[in-house]
Amino acid sequence: MLHLDHVTIAVRDLHNTMNDIQKATGIEFSKSVIPFPGAIGQVAYLGTGFLELISLNDANEACTTPLGAAFASYASQREGIFGVALEATGGLHTMIDAARSQGVDFIGPNVQQAPLEDGTSIPFKTAFIGSHMPWLIEYERSRTWPIPYALSGVEIYTNDIKRDVSAYAAAYQLAASTGSEGDGLSRKLILDRGWLSLKHTDQPEKAGFNTIVVDKGEASYRIQCLAQGIKVTS
Questions:
Q1: d(Cα 59, Cα 80) in Å, to the nearest integer?
Q2: What share of the chain is helix, strand, coil (3-state, %, to 5)?
Q3: Contact between 50 and 152 (Cβ < 8 Å)
Q4: What letter would DSSP give residue 156?
Q5: What pLDDT score was predicted for residue 55?
Q6: Which residue from 31, 61, 137, 179 has the highest number of Cβ atoms inside 10 Å of its Cβ?
């Protein structure tokens, strides 16, 4: 089973970005947490999956950990989607082994702790390929919340859609839609919960994670990560 678990967004102004998303969607965020030294974050738990906003407080302190250093490098250049996590609870090792048999070099699994707003934390395992691809996460058990929102999908821009369809197939055993969307330069990857959509762009600087789709009943919200910042539309 492979679920769209959460998306981490690097932001410069945590309070204003949180308020903008909350005003446009009605999504509520938790109290502040410390995701790693040198950063502060707030989480919006959805019925399935969650959003995580993180802002850099102290780049030097953040660089004392590998995750913090990677985040500081990204956040110092732009706002946007820092990471997309796919939950593989109960099957992480099997998925890593299958990917490695296809030549995919996953790093991990590594054990980490997720901070909660009550001051406690929960353990989880992770495995990474690189910042350009979703990472895998495994909890002791899957988590959902009694909230009427769903983290539905993530749109990803690519300069080479054929290459990336093959890369996602090898890494996550995902088959892209055989039909085309629009002009034929998009492919959708259906997860057991949620989806990923690869969309072609001729502009190299636009390649990467671009838009988060959150649904609530018949309503659908798009959180776009643009060069000029975060934009929420419905």
A1: 17
A2: 20, 40, 35
A3: no
A4: E
A5: 97
A6: 137
